[in-house]
Amino acid sequence: MNEWVKRAEVYAGVREGITSSDAQRMKELERENKELRRANEILKLASAFFAQAELDRRLKS
Protein backbone atom coordinates (compact mmCIF):
# COMPACT_ATOMS: atom_id res chain seq x y z
CA MET A 1 0.00 0.00 0.00
CA ASN A 2 2.89 2.33 0.76
CA GLU A 3 4.12 2.10 -2.85
CA TRP A 4 0.66 2.92 -4.14
CA VAL A 5 0.57 6.07 -2.00
CA LYS A 6 4.02 7.11 -3.23
CA ARG A 7 2.96 6.66 -6.86
CA ALA A 8 -0.20 8.67 -6.26
CA GLU A 9 1.85 11.47 -4.72
CA VAL A 10 4.23 11.49 -7.69
CA TYR A 11 1.29 11.73 -10.11
CA ALA A 12 -0.25 14.52 -8.02
CA GLY A 13 3.04 16.42 -7.99
CA VAL A 14 3.34 16.25 -4.22
CA ARG A 15 6.41 14.00 -4.31
CA GLU A 16 9.33 14.18 -6.71
CA GLY A 17 9.74 11.31 -9.11
CA ILE A 18 8.99 10.05 -12.56
CA THR A 19 5.53 8.86 -13.49
CA SER A 20 5.20 5.49 -15.15
CA SER A 21 4.10 7.11 -18.41
CA ASP A 22 7.18 9.36 -18.33
CA ALA A 23 9.40 6.36 -17.61
CA GLN A 24 7.80 4.49 -20.52
CA ARG A 25 8.32 7.46 -22.84
CA MET A 26 11.93 7.81 -21.72
CA LYS A 27 12.54 4.13 -22.42
CA GLU A 28 11.06 4.51 -25.91
CA LEU A 29 13.19 7.58 -26.61
CA GLU A 30 16.34 5.82 -25.40
CA ARG A 31 15.57 2.88 -27.70
CA GLU A 32 14.98 5.25 -30.63
CA ASN A 33 18.18 7.13 -29.83
CA LYS A 34 20.16 3.88 -29.81
CA GLU A 35 18.65 2.90 -33.16
CA LEU A 36 19.45 6.28 -34.70
CA ARG A 37 23.03 6.16 -33.43
CA ARG A 38 23.44 2.72 -34.98
CA ALA A 39 22.02 3.95 -38.31
CA ASN A 40 24.30 6.99 -38.18
CA GLU A 41 27.34 4.78 -37.63
CA ILE A 42 26.36 2.61 -40.61
CA LEU A 43 25.99 5.71 -42.78
CA LYS A 44 29.42 6.98 -41.69
CA LEU A 45 31.01 3.65 -42.59
CA ALA A 46 29.23 3.54 -45.95
CA SER A 47 30.29 7.10 -46.71
CA ALA A 48 33.92 6.28 -45.94
CA PHE A 49 33.72 3.13 -48.06
CA PHE A 50 32.32 4.94 -51.10
CA ALA A 51 34.75 7.85 -50.68
CA GLN A 52 37.66 5.40 -50.69
CA ALA A 53 36.23 3.59 -53.72
CA GLU A 54 35.92 6.91 -55.57
CA LEU A 55 39.49 7.84 -54.64
CA ASP A 56 40.75 4.46 -55.86
CA ARG A 57 38.81 4.88 -59.11
CA ARG A 58 40.34 8.31 -59.73
CA LEU A 59 43.86 7.09 -59.01
CA LYS A 60 43.48 4.24 -61.53
CA SER A 61 42.35 6.60 -64.30
From TrEMBL:
<protein>
    <recommendedName>
        <fullName>Transposase</fullName>
    </recommendedName>
</protein>
<dbReference type="InterPro" id="IPR009057">
    <property type="entry name" value="Homeodomain-like_sf"/>
</dbReference>
<keyword id="KW-0175">Coiled coil</keyword>
<feature type="coiled-coil region">
    <location>
        <begin position="19"/>
        <end position="46"/>
    </location>
</feature>
